[in-house]
Amino acid sequence: MLLDKHRTIAGPGFNRWLVPPAALCIHLCIGMAYGFSVFWLPLTRAVGITAPVACPAGMSLLEKLTTTTCDWDKPLLGWMYTLFFVFLGSSAALFGTWLEKAGPRKAGVVAACCWCGGLVISALGVYLHQLWLLWLGSGVIGGIGLGLGYISPVSTLIKWFPDRRGMASGMAIMGFGGGAMIGSPLADRLMKYFAGPESVGVWQTFLVLAGVYFVFMMVGSFAYRVPPEGWTPTGRAPATPAPTAAVGLDAPRSLTVAQACQTRQFWLLWLVLCLNVSAGIGVIGMASPMLQEIFGGRLLGTNIPFEELDAGQLGRVAAMAAGFTGLLSLFNILGRFFWSSLSDTLGRKTTYCLFFLLGAALYAAVPGVGQSGNIPLFCGIFCLILSMYGGGFAAIPAYLADLFGTGSVGAIHGRLLTAWSVAGILGPVLVNYWNEYQVQAGVPRARAYDQTMLLLAGLLVVGFFCNLLVRPVPTRLVPAGLARGPAPAGDQPAAANAGSLRSHAEGTTSDIPPMSDGLIWLVLFWLLVAVPLAWGVWMTMRQAWALLG
Fold it and tell me: Which pTM was predicted?
């Protein structure tokens, strides 16, 4: 069958640099989950069109899920965001082992059907004004697609780049951060195009995005290839972990997912990821109101508090906050590649220590910077924080491969992503409720974030000590006969792969192909993902200019 794993084994002459753009085709599409807030305001007036139609007081949740006579509010719509990450983590954990057996192509196709099918169901939900269809479509079914699409390229890229595990996982996961940077402005333009007297343009936008994303995700899925057993990069020594990252397996053997989950190291990394994500995702959720409420009129060159700004001033401040949010998205992306690549040199454990120590210091400095009115420094602090948030996501698969080997890294990564599900609830709830408590207690809005920042700094301090406790996996847990990772160059490959490996040894395969049709296809494939990404960066910088200018 075309989707079987053996149909994806790379043949002689395959260029491993074709795999990263395949991964980006998937991640740039599912990364739109981060940008779904662009739909909240239009959906709050899906019935009223020009203004929201409020639901009667005392209406039950069940009635709100099925009513067609009044509009939904933002908290109800926001549950889709929570469902995304709950089902992302749970589906990644549930189907991670299946993915290792089925291969990345089949997993990518299923992810495309779930994510895009969920958008179609959501479009029907908007058209019929049934909120439960949005929760089911994008939240549940789409969330399952997110989980499969998120982990499908990770183990594949790590196996193709055993010499640069951090860079490999960063190349894949940076796309997830970039999805919203492309999808949000695209969705905004589509909604404005389709909006009319009888529609806010959301259901039509969902259908267009579903079609575009399905094409991209199918291209990426069918472009996936896995290396033959025992493959190593041509002209390179066998893979060795970075000096300070070698806290795990040096042997060409790997732990299974069940064995990895029984180790203390796995659960320490679970806490490391959960605490890092809880702090970062809380900032993402409150970035726009935080900037506006802390600085208020100072963003416009006056000393007027946020509560006293008029409608025109609020509009200008909101535009600056949108630029701030865009900048955070950009640094989230850049950090995923930069920090994960740097971890190949510094080592994973050292990199995470840097995340936690520097992050805690930056969070603790925010109250003082906010009171000083230094807007560029305030923005710079949060850009650096978000770069480390993204870097934490991107470096964790390589950390797992260092500890447990590459044989089941996709399945192990899937189990670890349950930490993201917990953080997706813990971070926003902790931050939002504590901030609201401060406001209700009479704390001025400009100062209501001070204790929140110290709370997030405390989470990172706990994460620092969890990371320090990570130790090498005892060799007694690695009996012979388990799944093999990249074999040393001196090992004899299986007969079925001998031809492919021999072609590498004879020099017919190269990381950089000669000027030929192969190079042309390589360039075109990279342009397919680079052009939309460049457009997203350009749109983000245009928004950010309202703040920086």
Answer: 0.78
Express each pLDDT in 441-462 by its tens digit.
888 877 888 888 898 999 999 9
| Residue of 75, 34, 32, 80 whose CA lies nearest to 55 | 75
Q: Is the pLDDT of residue 42 over 80?
A: yes
Please count the other Cβ atoms lying within 10 Å of the Cβ belonging to residue 216: 20
Q: What is the CATH architecture of 240-487? A: Up-down Bundle (1.20)
Query: SS3 of 54, please?
Result: coil
For residue 67, what are its two tokens? 């009513």
Characterise 111 by phi-psi region: left (phi > 0), alpha (psi -120 to 50), beta (else): alpha
Residue 152's nearest CA partner among 8, 254, 266, 275 is 8
Architecture of the structural domain at 1-53+64-235? Up-down Bundle (1.20)
Question: Is 51 in contact with 45 (CB distance < 8 Å)?
Answer: yes
Q: Are 5 and 106 in contact (CB under 8 A)?
A: yes
**Contact status, residue 170 vs residue 337, Cβ threshold 8 Å:** yes
For the stretch 492-523, pLDDT in tens is: 333 333 333 333 333 333 333 433 457 888 89
Residues of the chain with CATH 1.20.1250.20: 1-53+64-235, 240-487
Buried residues in 68-104 as b, exposed as e (16+ CB within 10 A): eebbbeeebbbebbbbbbbbbbbbbbbbbbebbebbb
